[in-house]
Amino acid sequence: MLTQILKNITRRKTRTLLTVSGIAVGVAMIVAMGAMGEGLRTGYASMFSGSGANLVMMQKGSYDITLSGVDEDVISQAAAMPEVASAGGVIVGNVNVSGSFYFYVFGYDPKGFAIQRFKPVAGEMLGGSHSSMGSREIMLGKQASEALKLNVGDIIRLPGGAFRIVGIYATGSGFEDAASVVSLADAQLLLQKYRQVGAVQIKLKDPRQIDQVRAKLERQYPKLTISESSQAANDQQMVGMMQGVAWGIAFLAVIIGGVGMTNTVMMSAFERTREIGTLRALGWSRWRVVIMVMGESTLLGALGGLVGCAAGAALVIPMSTSSAMSYLQGKLSLSLLGQGMLTAVVLGCVGGLYPTWWASRLMPVEALRYEGGAGASRKSQASNIKFQVGLRKSETLRSLWSRRGRTVLTIVGISIGLTAVVALSGISEGFIREMGKLFTQGDVDLVARQAGASDLGYSAISERVGRQIAAIPGVESVSGLVVGFVTMEQTPFVMVFGYDPQEPALRHFKIVQGRGLSGSREAILGRPAADSLKVNIGETLRLGEMGFRVVGIFETGVSWEEGGIVIPLRDGQAILGKPRQVSLYAIKVRNASQVEPVRKQIEANISEVIVASSSDVNEFMPEMEVMNVMVWAISALAILVGGIGMMNTMVMSVFERTREIGTLRALGWRRRKVLGMVIKESLALGLIGVVIGVVLAWLLGLAMQQIPIWGTWLAVVISPGLLAQTLAIAILLGAVGGLYPAWRAANLSPVEALRYE
Predict the structure, then answer these.
(1) Model confidence band, residue 44 (pLDDT cutoffs 50, 70, 90)
(2) Is the pTM of this model over 0.85?
(3) Could you say which of 111, 290, 401, 713 has the lowest number of CB atoms within 10 Å?
(4) With 70 as the cut, is the pLDDT of residue 28 above it?
């Protein structure tokens, strides 16, 4: 039986190769993206537990340690406890440097216990014997040093200034080795966390007292979250989000590859209808036929799994060493490779279910009447040739309709890929549109954010800068806004906006129920947020450890705002760990003709910020560029996997119609005409996939908007530009997928083709 299975899958080497390739791409994505997500999780775990700390204290409700803010006085207070051997602060943040949007910087006390694990492999520790007074020092991880091509003694320029590299370290954690370490004081200046740390790490004299000390700290610091170091990584929402994105991309590739698998096995079974009939006539039982067809499908899946695991492992290296993705350090494991192989084998089994069922039900007499090669009976073959010679306008659709099963499966695979492209691109366009509306609907001319901040959530501008901007001639008003995410019991995150109740920027919040903000510990919500959180006017809403009384419901026409919570600026600064800081400044200029001169003057005189007009605000948002890169990467994946599936289908179509094509060539069809026939069928499949993909993306967008809180972020905007992009992808899929099969069909010799069985 094994010999028969191997013979069957090697009979059509091109088809087998394409099928294995389609599955391999999906498995490679599972391995590569899974390794990225696992690398981030283990990196965070190493950061928390590798320091030797037993407990970690962070701001309650913070989305991630990079957004946490803990008063540095807590360090000395915790260190004074009799059970504590040592306590130290740590700051974790990221900046934009040398083409990398997210370059991580760790801030530690040079004399603390936690920094001791960053052992230099070149140079020395921070504050070493060769340190010079007044010089800001930095240590680079080995991978960061290699990616940025910097060594000991070189200068690295970060958004907060220049740092001299005094050492290169290696911890064994890819996440940390792709980052950098500065002193706690320098990190506070660099990341705008004045008198704050991201977390407090506590080392106990007796680790057996961990539960007792934890309970004591929880009573003393109710606004902080106290976790065991080994569990702290699991509390970071960033890790879960990255793993979710990774698995989502991998799932997409697997689904498209699985459809291609079903298509291949089904066509293989159809092609061997007479052979299966002969075997049944010779005494083969239905179960033996089932084992043969299912064995072929499973073996194809296993081969695809092996190739995919190898390709995925190979992808991890360049992705991890890229300076643009230094924060994503892949971590391969046997369990991850096992998941990839298991997925491939399951795909093989599932893909073979229908073909196996169909083959097992073939009656020997009917199967022996089937004409292989032509794809149907001689009567239908002759009819199809007559139709082709007639050159009717609908010949392409008729040809596709005559092989409905294969056509449907191919369109399903293409449609899934295009649905993902349209949905993700549409969400990206929705993000950009809503970000623009966030400022253009208000009375705003210019927007200022922190220079070098890798993300809006990390932007932190001192209120001193706001006063400097307000003093510039031509500026009418300056409104500060603090924005960030807070975790809640009802949802993993909710967006929080902090405004001064008296500032002009708050005027565009149209109150439809209740009243606006007037004092501290008050909140107004958009209608979608109020409905999702199930709160009404007069009720109390808890954000972290702070309670807010809901005083109003607003409308703005901006989904981001209507899905969020607006609170007074001072309360927002406290919750988001940005005392006396804002994320953005919205600037109103007295005269429209002064907008550009004022913008240039602000950037020339205030180095801490970059400024853009409200209509161009998306151009200086790095997170938008990152999103666009992700969308294009997924589009490329869809083209690759869809192209393999398309090529597979068209190759099988040519094999099946070999005698038909030979007859057409014998009747006078030129090679160019045969080439056009195959290419047109391939393009038609792509265009049908576009229509279905756009409709499915639109329906998916409607469904996603029903998700509480998150739905307001997931509006799918299908613009004319996006439709044109999707159409171009479909044409590319058709051209790439049909090119080789068309070439093969056009070069068939009429005599050899007519002999084909």
Answers:
(1) confident
(2) no
(3) 401
(4) yes
